[in-house]
Amino acid sequence: MNDPARRRADAMNAAEENFAGARLWAATRAPYLTSALFALTALIHEDAPPRPSADEHWNVHLNPEATAAAPVPELGWWLLHHVSHLLRDHHARARPYAPHVGEPPPDSAHTDVERWVRAADAEVNDDLDDAPADAISPETLGLPDGLLAERYAALLDLIDPPPHLRPCARPPFTGPAATTELERELLARAVAADIQARGTAPGGWQRWAQSALHPEVNWRARLARLVRRGLSRAAGRVDYSYSRPSRRSAAAPSIVLPALIRPLPRVTVLVDTSGSIGRTALDQALSELDGVLRAAGSRWAEVICCDTRAYPAQRVRSAAHVELVGGGGTDLRPGFTAAQATGADLLVVLTDGDTPWPDRRPRPYVVVCLFGDDHDAPGWASTVRLFEDGHDAPDRAGTVRQP
Ligand SMILES: [Zn+2]
Q: Which CATH architecture has domain 219-401?
């Protein structure tokens, strides 16, 4: 008897077998990812897209027919691809690019998510050979390699990716959590330790292992926390406003309706461009800040570059649009004056701290991002120390001071 149920069962079996073979193939290709590959759970079901996809609980969604028919190396490549997303925590890192819960989605929400998905593929495929012809990588995008997805996301805001490139498939639903968050974290640390011990993995994996093994130097999380706190304190000082038109006023154009929403706090970023800070470090800090501000619902910031004088404020909607000007000596005080003139509620300062500071606490809430550990910021500022990726100083990077 060759009824549909029987054919389905055959496809399921063949898919399962092919998955097992592909996983072994992948483990041979990248031995340092073996334990991660074997932590995957295969969910074989009809709703899965033709190409493998994975959810945040480490379930790989496999289409029975397509998986049964796929060559083992092709299937194995996709397993490596998705394990890379999972280990690098791309699902959590996507959150700043997703629409905010409980808010009407901004017009850009859809494109932001698409941009993130492409950026995450660029980070992952950078370290994977033999990608499919339509895969997104720094090379196929014409962008520099070795960057993090957050940076690719900022760069993708400036270019149109070639239309034939396709990001990886997304699963139709999130499967059951077979492991706890702690187990997944321990798995990531074990993989990272293995990568460091072998020393043969591609550069992107080495850098990832370094940061995974030193979560205490995660200045990104601290920066995000301080900026969020700054925004909420600033929001508490801002009045309700009639300045924004209500959504309803479009439907009733002759009536002026008050907009009963709080305006977002005004964010100004003061960048020390005196020349003592590396361009890479500033870029990294700016793109990180980009993600943090997006996550907080802020869609633009004024940026003021300052060496010994403050340059005209740039109003940007992404870190990639910031033009870094300056290069002289350092005195950030004119920058503080200019920032207060923009009406900033929250002022984020990027500096190595080798500058005279204002004598008094400025009106805005101030978060100082200090590069390196040679200098300190005044007591009225919240401070986070930033270290360039790959040059983290574990004992000092966690230093955060609140006023
Ligand atoms: Zn992908």
A: 3-Layer(aba) Sandwich (3.40)
